[in-house]
């Protein structure tokens, strides 16, 4: 089963969620990945914010391309030390500012493909950056990751 092999080397999965947009989920996901990397951990980020994939730009790899290998897609490796693996729909768009206007089934299929078809390798942490709210993307992500050992979730809130 492909699902077993591509996430087999991932020790902990962490979802970053919020009830609304603009609270800093992508910033927190990026900073958390950088902090874990600086602590010597092997880190991946899965950006499932399909309508607003900002992490490639935050990590200055928005012009990178995703390649195929025998076990699926090779994530983009970030930094000179290549210590952060990143997968985002931002790498699959023709132009980084292209809008993604998809209905649920197509979004769900891409999320499932990101989980099952990305060759993550050995990671201490896979951080999953989600879109705002509680939509199809969240249900798809949690359902697809259910067979794996989730570490937990970080809920980002603001006081307003």
Automatic annotation (TrEMBL):
<dbReference type="GO" id="GO:0005829">
    <property type="term" value="C:cytosol"/>
</dbReference>
<keyword id="KW-0411">Iron-sulfur</keyword>
<dbReference type="GO" id="GO:0016226">
    <property type="term" value="P:iron-sulfur cluster assembly"/>
</dbReference>
<dbReference type="InterPro" id="IPR019591">
    <property type="entry name" value="Mrp/NBP35_ATP-bd"/>
</dbReference>
<dbReference type="GO" id="GO:0140663">
    <property type="term" value="F:ATP-dependent FeS chaperone activity"/>
</dbReference>
<dbReference type="GO" id="GO:0051539">
    <property type="term" value="F:4 iron, 4 sulfur cluster binding"/>
</dbReference>
<dbReference type="InterPro" id="IPR033756">
    <property type="entry name" value="YlxH/NBP35"/>
</dbReference>
<dbReference type="GO" id="GO:0046872">
    <property type="term" value="F:metal ion binding"/>
</dbReference>
<dbReference type="InterPro" id="IPR000808">
    <property type="entry name" value="Mrp-like_CS"/>
</dbReference>
<keyword id="KW-0547">Nucleotide-binding</keyword>
<dbReference type="GO" id="GO:0005524">
    <property type="term" value="F:ATP binding"/>
</dbReference>
<keyword id="KW-0479">Metal-binding</keyword>
<keyword id="KW-0408">Iron</keyword>
<keyword id="KW-0067">ATP-binding</keyword>
<keyword id="KW-0004">4Fe-4S</keyword>
<protein>
    <submittedName>
        <fullName>NUBP2 factor</fullName>
    </submittedName>
</protein>
<dbReference type="Pfam" id="PF10609">
    <property type="entry name" value="ParA"/>
</dbReference>
<dbReference type="InterPro" id="IPR027417">
    <property type="entry name" value="P-loop_NTPase"/>
</dbReference>
